[in-house]
């Protein structure tokens, strides 16, 4: 194998295995983050990144192994042929008479003007705004919050004007205008103690009231929710009463949107 190609194969072998070590290290770091991240979406993103880096490390090992094989077993096209010298007859030629060489005068060529490069402005990246952004109370994690399980869910059961023994009284999704409480009955599953969750009451998309709380933990101005699976309710009495319009309750587990559950107030 020619020395130049041998040197290239040797450096390729070293480079591929060095990249494999770096990719393997990054994969280990991402998998570790996947176990320690406080939120599910962060753990899932770290797990996918760790898998990608592990695949890169595997590909680098394959390429490095291929370079090592080529170095040990070079293909026939890269092996120079063996040349056997054969005697060549020598012919005596008469010495030519030296002739004067013509002299050439170089004509200067004017330089070609080079146009200045036109700077290219980078295209700004547009970050999409979520359709249901979190309230300000949920933008920072609460102290003592624990990661939610992937199967954690909260769904709406029904709205009602009252509650008796945990059951809705006068359930409906439309109520006449007036001064009263509206109860939102919900069902939940896969919840655990200390999971951060958020609820909010809205009118025509405008935030009215709500809070960010820890599940199964007593906190000021927070409903006390108990258990991993079951049903319960929230309620809200608007100051000055309910005017006609479209209202809704929005619920999140950490930053995972669970739904916007509407009800209407009619004249």
Q: How are the secondary structure elements laid out?
A:
Elements: H1 3-36, H2 40-72, E1 153-164, E2 167-172, E3 174-176, E4 181-189, E5 196-203, E6 206-214, E7 230-237, E8 245-253, E9 256-266
Parallel strand pairs: 3-9
Antiparallel strand pairs: 1-2, 1-4, 4-7, 5-6, 5-8, 8-9
Helix pairs in contact: 1-2
The DSSP helix count reads 2
List the helices and strands in order.
HHEEEEEEEEE
Strand order of the largest sheet: 3-9-8-5-6
Mean pLDDT: 83
Entry summary:
The protein has 267 residues and is an alpha+beta fold. The protein has helices at residues 3-36, 40-72, and strands at residues 153-164, 167-172, 174-176, 181-189, 196-203, 206-214, 230-237, 245-253, 256-266.
Description of the structure:
With 267 residues, the chain is α+β, with helices and mostly antiparallel strands. The chain has 2 domains: 3-78; 136-266, Sandwich (Immunoglobulin-like). The protein contains 2 helices and 9 strands. It has helices at 3-36, 40-72; strands spanning 153-164, 167-172, 174-176, 181-189, 196-203, 206-214, 230-237, 245-253, 256-266. The strands form 2 sheets. Strands 3-9-8-5-6 form a 5-stranded mixed sheet, with no helix packed on it. The protein has a 4-stranded antiparallel sheet with strand order 2-1-4-7, with no helix packed on it. Helix 1 packs antiparallel against helix 2 (40-72). The protein is elongated.
């Amino acid at each position: 194998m020619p020395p130049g190609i041998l040197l290239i194969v040797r450096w390729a072998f070293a480079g591929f295995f060095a990249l494999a070590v770096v990719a393997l290290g990054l994969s280990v770091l991402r998998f570790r983050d996947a176990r320690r991240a406080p939120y599910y979406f962060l753990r899932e993103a770290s797990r996918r990144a760790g898998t990608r880096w592990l695949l890169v490390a595997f590909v680098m090992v394959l390429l490095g192994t291929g370079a090592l094989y080529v170095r040990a077993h070079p293909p026939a096209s890269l092996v120079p042929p063996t040349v056997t010298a054969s005697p060549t007859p020598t012919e005596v030629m008469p010495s030519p008479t030296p002739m004067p060489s013509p002299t050439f005068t170089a004509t200067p060529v004017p330089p070609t003007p080079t146009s200045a490069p036109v700077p290219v402005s980078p295209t700004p990246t547009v970050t999409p705004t979520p359709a249901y952004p979190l309230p300000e109370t949920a933008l920072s994690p609460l102290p003592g919050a624990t990661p939610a399980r992937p199967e954690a869910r909260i769904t709406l059961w029904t709205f009602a004007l009252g509650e008796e023994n945990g059951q809705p009284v006068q359930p409906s999704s439309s109520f006449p205008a007036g001064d009263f409480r509206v109860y939102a009955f919900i069902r939940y599953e896969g919840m655990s103690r200390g999971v951060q969750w958020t609820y909010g009451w809205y009118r025509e998309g405008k935030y009215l009231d709500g809070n960010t709380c820890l599940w199964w933990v007593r906190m000021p101005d927070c409903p006390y929710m108990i258990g991993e699976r079951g049903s319960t309710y929230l309620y809200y009495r608007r100051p000055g009463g309910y005017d006609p319009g479209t209202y809704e309750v929005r619920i999140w587990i950490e930053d995972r949107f669970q739904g916007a559950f509407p009800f209407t107030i009619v004249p």
